[in-house]
Design goal:
The protein is an alpha+beta fold. Helices cover 51% and strands 20% of the residues.
Length: 360
């Protein structure tokens, strides 16, 4: 054996062992320092998730330990988690705070959005169910559940929810064509092409001059042919006289075969009936589904429904969307006839004369 070789071999193992132990010690020291830097779990957020938040948001999150039901803090933290794409932590935090503090629409919305962004529409629909139960007057909760149901293949449920969503919008003139067409498409997908035709008819009725476009006519005609649907446009004509000295146009109107006095208002988007009249006319309506509308008496809650037929003189329309209010109109007036009926006719008002003609 060559001189010096045994000496070199003698030091190799000790040196390797020393280096290995140094690396191990350094790694352990680094891990302990990392663990010191990572905050403990806050409410339902793991420390590692908190570490990814900005320092100010991290402090805000830690305040949730002592004030978990502070909605402002919760909203700020979930927003930070969403920006970090940490959807799992958003869901965990939202569900934990809901269990501790009760309903919170912002938190439920955050949970739903996180579930939707991860394509978890099965649980997303469950979250939307909670929102509908807690906030039945909010249009957005029906929109979210409609989307979840559509993703889960429940087209009938998706259609029902979107229809409720739109019925909660007080001014139907603000609904764009894209939204009306989407609702009509869901009606068709759920096996009801004739309801799709009705939806487009109602859409046009609120602004016939601007909304009766070739695109709308084409879509409606396709659904009309597909379902072999009966004509839904206003039928017949009317020429009626009213007292021009009165503060409004008051005329006899037939609702599901019952004739009552109603105020004729070409500026109102939806026909409104008293609750008593709706009950007598057999119109189904629910206090759980409705809208907040502005009247001369301020904002009030109204239920939604549909009249089988409404007739004014010889002018008649089927399947008309209506509102139902508890307040009486006074002076023997039992309702207000708006554009959901009048918008399906050509209306001419002269001195003491109201004429309804067929749409061209």
């Amino acid at each position: 054996m060559r001189p010096g070789y045994p000496a070199t071999n003698r030091w190799a193992k000790p040196v390797f062992l020393i280096v290995f132990l140094a690396v191990l010690a350094g790694g352990y020291y680094g891990y302990t320092q990392y663990r010191k830097a990572v905050p403990g779990e806050v409410v339902a957020i793991p420390g590692e998730a908190l570490l990814r938040l900005e320092p100010t948001l991290r402090t805000t999150a830690q305040r949730l330990n002592t004030d978990p039901c502070n909605r402002t803090l919760a909203f700020q933290v979930t927003g930070g988690l969403m920006q970090n794409y940490d959807y799992a932590s958003v869901i965990r935090l939202g569900q934990s705070l809901r269990a501790k503090c009760g309903p919170n629409q912002d938190l439920l919305a955050s949970i739903y959005k996180a579930q939707a962004l991860t394509n978890d529409y099965v649980n997303g629909e469950k979250t939307a169910d909670e929102m509908v139960a807690d906030y039945p007057a909010a249009p957005s909760v029906y929109a979210w559940r409609s989307m979840a149901r559509e993703k889960n293949g429940n087209m009938a449920g998706a259609y029902a929810d979107m229809r409720t969503e739109l019925s909660l919008i007080p001014d139907q003139r603000t609904i764009p064509l894209r939204t009306a067409a989407e609702l009509a498409g869901l009606a068709d997908a759920s096996g009801n092409p004739c309801e799709a035709v009705t939806i487009m008819r109602d859409y046009v009725a609120y602004d016939a001059f601007n909304r009766q476009t070739q695109q709308v006519t084409t879509m409606t005609s396709e659904w009309q042919k597909k379902g072999a649907c009966p004509p839904l446009a206003g039928a017949g004509t009317a020429a009626l006289h009213f007292d021009p000295r009165a503060s409004g146009i008051i005329l006899p109107v037939e609702i599901n075969g019952i004739t009552v006095k109603m105020l004729i208002d070409t500026g109102a988007t939806r026909t409104v009936l008293t609750e008593d009249l709706a009950n007598r006319a057999g119109i189904a309506h629910s206090s759980q589904q409705g809208a907040i509308v502005t009247t001369a008496n301020g904002q009030i809650w109204v239920a939604t429904g549909r009249a089988k037929t409404i007739a004014l003189g010889g002018a008649r329309l089927s399947d008309v969307p209506i509102y139902v209010q508890k307040l009486a109109f006074g002076n023997g007036i039992e309702g207000l006839l708006g554009l959901s009926f009048l918008g399906n006719f050509q209306v001419r008002i002269g001195s003491g004369t109201l004429e309804l003609g067929q749409m061209k």
